[in-house]
């Protein structure tokens, strides 16, 4: 079980690095995609979950996406409690374009990394 968590941590970190690289390349669609993937991986770890929502909020500010910004506020508030209680919906991508409590299909290439 410990090995699975380590893989999750490494893959989460990798997705965040890919998002930051996409930001530098000004490829905002790709940046968002990697933030969503990081959310799927990190949503059952309180600090990773909180961190990725902060990054999503930053993304919405930089890209002037008001509705996304507003949608991230309750997600940031609920990120840690949702992770601690295990109530975060598995596979949810974390953006305001999906319901906060809606489970979603996990991309095939992430199945081995999600507990």
Structural features, described:
There is one protein chain. The longest helix is centred in the first third of the chain and has 23 residues, at 2-24. The protein has helices at residues 2-24, 28-42, 46-62, 66-85. The protein is mainly alpha-helical.
Rounded mean pLDDT score: 92
Q: Would you report the number of β strands?
A: 0
Supply Rg: 13 Å
Beta content: under 5%
N-to-C span? 9 Å
Global morphology = globular
**Class from helix and strand fractions:** mainly alpha
What is the element string, with H for helices and E for strands? HHHH
Low-confidence stretches: 1-5
The major pleated sheet works out as: none
Fraction of residues in H or I helices:
55-70%
Number of helices: 4
Please render the helix and strand layout as text.
Elements (H helix, E strand, L loop, with lengths): L1 H23 L3 H15 L3 H17 L3 H20 L30
Helix pairs in contact: 1-2, 2-3, 3-4
Please tag this protein with its features.
mainly alpha, globular, disordered N terminus
Brief write-up:
With 115 residues, this protein is mainly α. It has helices spanning 2-24, 28-42, 46-62, 66-85. The protein has one domain (2-113).
